[in-house]
Design brief:
By secondary structure, the protein is an alpha+beta fold. The strands form two sheets. It has a five-stranded antiparallel β-sheet with strand order 4-3-5-6-7, covered by helices on one side. The chain has a two-stranded antiparallel ribbon with strand order 1-2. A hairpin with a 2-residue loop joins strand 6 and strand 7. The longest helix has 61 residues. The N and C termini lie far apart (123 Å).
């Protein structure tokens, strides 16, 4: 220990002005305790080492953990939104298929009632016979809100295989294609196609209806929903 430095330090900080400490070998107990207490207060821990900090590997690991922590919830949210969109489209497809079946059943009922009242009307008139476009098991489209002679159509390139259009004013779906296969004014193209087939299983007694709704929720993804029902001539 350098006693000259220690003597100067003690005289400057702990010794009264009227008494100077000169002994190079002996340190009074009081001064020794004071020196020990102040030595303990030295903040060596605040001195930074030259090689302190994060390494490149530690930084990459921290970034990876952060990306996983952020990306996980975002992935869950994206899948939840995709599921919600698919559920919405599936519900829409179900109601579109049910609408076509209800139209055919309603037309059947009108024909049967007309026959009971003495009219000579086929029970599937307007669907498979007498101007109906669903004859001979061919694929047809149904637009219940169109004009009477346009409520059934033949699916083909002229209507993009019975592509459904949506009217944003009346909020209804239909097959309102004008000239050059373009939608009529006020009608917008939708991702849905509705194709109907009617097969008379037993002549003048039973027919089977099959309605297939197709849609494309996103590119290269095709969804299909099919609803079938049998109807009877209850006359």
């Amino acid at each position: 220990m350098n006693y000259k430095i220690l003597k100067s330090y003690l005289n400057r900080n702990f010794v009264r002005k009227d008494k100077v400490f000169d002994d190079k070998r002996t340190i009074p107990t009081a001064y020794s305790n004071c020196y020990s207490r102040r030595a303990k207060l030295t903040a060596n821990s605040l001195q930074l080492k030259a090689n302190s900090g994060f390494s490149l590997v530690e930084t990459l690991v921290a970034i990876s953990i952060l990306m996983i922590a952020i990306g996980g919830p975002l992935l869950i949210a994206e899948r939840s939104l995709a599921t919600a969109r698919y559920s919405k489209d599936q519900i829409t497809a179900f109601y579109l298929a049910q609408e076509a079946i209800e139209y055919i059943k309603n037309t059947r009922d009108k024909n049967v009632i007309s026959g009971q009242q003495g009219g000579n009307v086929d029970w599937l008139s307007g669907i498979t016979t007498n101007g109906g476009k669903c004859q001979n098991d061919s694929v047809c489209g149904i637009d219940p809100n169109a004009e009477p002679n346009k409520q059934t159509i033949t699916c083909g390139s002229q209507n993009d295989n019975c592509r459904l259009l949506f009217n944003q004013v009346s909020n209804i779906y239909g097959h309102r294609f004008g000239s050059n296969s373009n939608p009529d004014s006020g009608w917008a193209i939708t991702p849905f196609q509705r194709q109907v087939t009617v097969v008379e299983v037993v002549d003048d007694i039973e027919a089977k209806i099959s309605v297939t709704v197709k849609w494309n929720p996103r590119p290269l993804v095709n969804k299909t929903f099919t609803l079938t029902e049998s109807i009877f001539n209850w006359r």
